[in-house]
Design brief:
2 strands; 328 residues; mainly alpha
Length: 328
């Protein structure tokens, strides 16, 4: 199915040469606005009512998002043909993942470190991590970048691409909605401990397999980049359980092994063996993540989407048009 393959390849090209749309019109921003509106509407009246309403909120956000995506691709297919469908699918798939956006955040931090401008580096680093970066030196600022890039290999690329391959756009956004709502509601405090339970657990469940799969592709990328491929699996097995998340430790520990580094969150965890990262290691981490992402999308997501996911997506589009036709 040439159009399905073209959609995946075009999504990669959009990511590389165009990037994300402005935040004010980004679909994830609209999704976030819907989640925020539901947050204000949900009454806090006990554990199970809040958990049920939290799960219903996820279902609503996912249903609205997926229905709009499939309606758009279905209408373009019916009116303009399969290549218009491929273009729309590519744009929507791109919204669900990001390979090259890490550079936008981390390269300015590296450049600030090269100028010995620690204040600017700390300020920019605070935008990508939740920890307090005040007083951090070059090594721990570089570690923040390397950790963030490594962890997001799974959440930002491998997981949405994996589910795109199996279920088409619906799969990509089933994961993206869970990941977004976990980011917004996944806090263990009085406001979110209950309403965020479903999204947090679904995000963990959806990322369980992909986090572990990522180690194989990190090892393959390390081999191609002449990094320490042999260190990936031992470090992943030894250090993956040290993070609070059941999944984020896998790509972090695997990347630490490939780079021959230790990632450290003061008073939190210490992952890997070797020195703490230096400013030049930020670029090495970016190249590792980009190679890992491209390998996974080309070797797994693309063929699985051509043979499975695209057909599931077309079936769901036809079903949606049938439902709408029946109502009208």
């Amino acid at each position: 199915m040439a159009e399905a393959a073209a959609a995946v390849l075009l999504a990669l090209l959009i990511d590389r040469f165009i990037g994300d749309p402005p935040n004010r019109v980004h679909p994830l921003r609209w999704m976030g606005n819907l989640v925020a509106a539901l947050d204000r509407l949900i009454p806090r009246k006990g554990v199970w009512p809040e958990r049920i309403l939290g799960a219903a909120s996820y279902a609503l956000v996912a249903l609205v998002t997926i229905s709009l995506c499939l309606l758009l691709t279905a209408l373009l297919r019916e009116t303009l043909g399969m290549w218009a469908w491929a273009l729309a699918t590519a744009v929507l798939f791109k919204v669900s993942f990001a390979v090259y956006s890490f550079r936008k955040h981390c390269t300015p931090i590296r450049e600030a470190l090269e100028r010995d401008d620690l204040d600017s580096a700390r300020s920019m680093t605070q935008m990508i991590v939740s920890r307090d970066v005040g007083g951090l030196g070059e090594e721990h600022i570089a570690s923040c970048c390397v950790e963030t890039v490594a962890e997001n290999t799974v959440d930002s690329v491998i997981s949405p691409s994996f589910y795109m391959g199996l279920l088409g756009l619906a799969g990509a956004f089933v994961f993206r909605c869970a990941n977004l709502m976990d980011a917004m509601w996944g806090y263990r405090n009085d406001r979110y401990a209950n309403i965020g339970t479903f999204a947090a657990r679904l995000d963990d469940a959806l990322g369980f397999v992909t986090a572990r799969i990522s180690t194989a592709f990190i090892a393959l990328a390390a081999m191609l980049l002449r990094m320490d491929a042999a260190g990936v699996f031992p470090k992943a097995a030894r250090y993956s359980a040290l993070t609070p998340s059941p999944n984020s430790g896998w790509p972090m520990a695997a990347s630490a092994g490939a780079l021959g580094l230790t990632m450290e969150k003061p008073a939190g965890y210490r992952i890997g063996e070797g020195p703490l990262p230096q400013k030049e290691d930020i670029e090495r981490a970016l190249r590792l993540v980009e190679a890992t992402s491209l390998l996974f999308i080309l070797l797994v997501a693309l063929p699985s989407y051509v043979f499975i996911g695209a057909h599931v997506q077309l079936y769901m589009e036809d079903a949606l048009l049938g439902i709408i036709g029946g109502i009208i």
